[in-house]
């Protein structure tokens, strides 16, 4: 006798072994992870069907008890068969086994796998985004704590990887936190906009049953439901949006890792890491390799590639429910999110354990001519020259000092006058102590008091504001979790009441 499909009388042949092995079986590997959400979707649907009178009370009670019993037994109690195609059919088959085909089969009234899959994706994405936001908040908190600790540790700042102007290590960390704040904000905005329920959209064209989509949305902790059934089922833009945010985030953490990669080299020696976050060589005994930094940089490219893969997969699909868009197109995000959570923990480790070489940092900033801009600023103030004229004079002074092998902090007013005579035809007669002070990297940093600058006068209030923002965001994400936990408790209570427990 010919075998038939286990899920449809339309299909008269059993699923090919290759289809089971390469398509359906891999889909079932995440059954345990999605089991709780699938149960919640079923509970919300049962409660709503009963409240709307779409199934009889006695049937709803049996369904509710059956789902609760499955929940108590856990996913391991469900025998998974790839011939049943996916998680839902396996779940339903087990439920029918427990409570009978007549009542068990009523669970699917007024819905489709399509709107269920879309709902499960949003439930899972919602949780993942909250986890990512928490991880980002932790990294930002670490950056701020270290910024406060090293707010006065002077080091060279670089543009084009050339000494540019003195900054402090704390100032750099403050900038890192500020950039991560935008990443956090982007993920939060997506989280808030995507928290809409697709459940009740059915296959893509709604249902003739008088369902209450607002009720199932409420029971599942959504803020509302997606109005158009086709959009509800066919769109996965929240996945691409989230993935694009992670791509931006990974590009940024890679740039930070590159800074540390350079600063920790023997040639720079501006930053040191404990041996616990380094590796060595199999042949060269002197090596201390920045393994974590290389991992962070390498995984960034991987996450950017996942975004491209997902975008390319979805772009060729029809605007409806399709396996390539709604299954294959979403796979990249879960992988990217998992990788991002790992990388954020590693980035936190980097920020927490990196130690600046304070002595060498201020020495380099005093010798490498990164204080030259301050000398040009002094000439503008004291000699009433245009900045461009002052720039030319100081450029000559730097060239003169370099040719003579003199470090920046040994430039004096006589050298300035030599170049001023050559450039302007007259000396500037700057006060020796003012020239000396503007070329001192610590004084140079503390003179930069404009908003957003590295001086303590500017940096300390900025760090206070940043700490306040981080705490507010931490509280907001926790409040979000609390609201969802309360919604789940209400769903559980409603299901138990429906079950007569």
Instruction: Kindly report the spatial arrangement of strands forming the biggest sheet.
Output: 1-2
Secondary structure tally, helices: 19
Structural class: mainly alpha
Flag low-confidence runs.
none
Write the element-wise H/E pattern from the N-terminal end onward. Answer: HHHHHHEEHHHHEHHEHHHHHHH
CATH topology term of the largest domain: Fumarase C, Chain A, domain 2
CATH class assignment of the largest domain: Mainly Alpha
- What's the β-strand tally? 4
CATH arch. level architecture of the largest domain: Up-down Bundle
Can you tell me the CATH superfamily of the largest domain? Fumarase/aspartase (Central domain)
Distance between the amino and carboxyl termini:
45 Å
Measured on Cα atoms, how large is the radius of gyration?
A: 31 Å
Main beta sheet: 2 strands, antiparallel
Instruction: Estimate the mean pLDDT confidence.
Output: 91
Helix percentage = 55-70%
Overall morphology: elongated
Our estimate of the beta-strand percent is under 5%
Overall tally of structural domains: 3
Structure commentary:
There is one protein chain. The protein is mainly α. It has 3 domains: 93 residues, Fumarase C, Chain B, domain 1; 235 residues, Fumarase C, Chain A, domain 2 (Up-down Bundle), CATH 1.20.200.10; 68 residues, Ribonucleotide Reductase Protein R1, domain 1, CATH 1.10.40. The protein is built from 19 helices and 4 strands. A hairpin with a 2-residue loop joins strand 1 and strand 2. The chain is elongated.
